Amino acid sequence: MKEHLASYPYEKPSLDYMQAHIESAVDAQQSNACTLHEAWAKVPAPLNATEIQQYQEEIRELLKQHNAVMVAHYYVEPELQDLALATGGMVGDSLEMAKFCKNHPADTLLVVGVRFMGETAKILSPQKTVLMPDLDATCSLDLGCPADEFKQFCDEHPDRTVVVYANTSAEVKAHADWVVTSSIAIEIVEHLHSQGKKIIWGPDRHLGQYIQDKTGADMLLWQGSCIVHNEFKGIELTHLKQQHPKAIVLVHPESPAEVVALADVVGSTSKLLNAAVQRPEQEFIVATDQGILHEMQKQAPHKKFFAAPTAGNGATCKSCAFCPWMAMNGLAACAKVLRDHSQEVQLDAALIEEARAPIQRMLDFSEAYKNYHQQHQQLGAGLAQFQQWLATQHEAKYSTL
Ligand code: SF4
User: Fold this and answer.
1) What atom in ligand 1 is closest to the CA of residue 229?
2) Taking the CA atoms of the chain, what radius of gyration do you get in angstroms?
């Protein structure tokens, strides 16, 4: 195993340890990334109501002028999520964002999230201009998985199918056989496992472990983690559950195993949102970035949501579940990049070509899986039936699944 892979001990690394690791990763990358401290320093100051309205009107106008659409992640600030929806764009998780960007006819995509999301949009729509409020907004999973080291890791295990999480650079995706998001990861790994394939998984170790436990697949795990989800605490969550015994616990699988073990629902941000809206219970404890609480509260205004506890940064802080890189996105930056067409995602054409195949494979699988379930609900959700159905499909794109 490479030194890098052992650099996060399996026990939870401290925030200081991760901060030091992130700083060295940013140094190594030399461009287009910033450390935790730099990210917090770049978080825009809060705007007053008049400023928010002025920027929203300006952005609305600029989107029209440039035939552009705004696509936002659930973890960015509420006023950005609301503006994306109000201007005909969308708010979603990374799989939904990727599909929307690919299918929307706009010439320009304003992707409000972190860099791998803008890169994925560019890979799937190379003819479109992809702008982001700040290209330095990155992700600890992306930073913790340098492409050269990951490639070496893959080369050492040539018999394994390489499955990478969407939270990676275009270069890492180019080494993969499959890209997955948390919305479809279990289904894809289960499918590969049933074909007898052994897997290399990167970069999130918690999500990898969760998938391995669920599917029984033979998986070698890269040892990266999300600095937000890694901080949720099992003991503190148990105490919060005792204070709210009727609450349902919703957990994103990037969280540590002891937190996942306390969950009533585990899944992607979209799955957690659906559970919050559709389940009959009235109280929910939510273990993912607190940005999602905005949409949950909008869709279920009569319900109560509590942020799951983290290590916290201060004496009064029980949950600091905010991603600093997501928080770098702001209205002023959105207006600026639309005005001057700066912060454009640029990727080499050959890299786009290489990285597109594993992403497209995920999208094709996701489409096939959805079609199968729409057509055959009465047959149940079994993998074997899905695979039999897949074998009867004549579309060329399904032959590589
Ligand atoms: S919340 Fe975690 S996984 Fe999501 S962008 Fe931030 S660091 Fe990455």
Assistant:
1) 2
2) 21
pLDDT tens-digit series, residues 321-376: 788 899 999 999 999 999 999 999 999 999 999 999 999 999 999 999 888 888 87
How many domains does the chain divide into? 2
Query: Ligand 1 centre from 393 Cα, in Å?
Result: 37
| 249 touches 265 (CB < 8 A) | yes
Expressed in angstroms and rounded, the spacing between residue 232 Cα and the centre of ligand 1 is: 13
- Looking at residue 101, which CATH number applies to its domain? 3.40.50.10800
Q: Which residues of 30-61 are buried (b: 16+ CB within 10 A; e: fewer)?
A: eeebbbbebbeebbeeebeeeeeeebbebbee
Residue 250's domain spans which residues?
Answer: 229-322
The CA distance from 99 to 177, in Å, is 19
The structure tokens listed for 248 are 């349902």
Which protein residue's CA is at the shortest distance from atom 6 of ligand 1? 323
**Predicted TM-score (pTM) of this structure:** 0.87
Examine residue 253 and say whether the peptide bond preceding it is cis (omega within 30 degrees of 0): no
Report how far residue 287's alpha carbon sits from residue 183's, in angstroms, rounded to the nearest whole number. Answer: 16
305 found inside a domain: yes
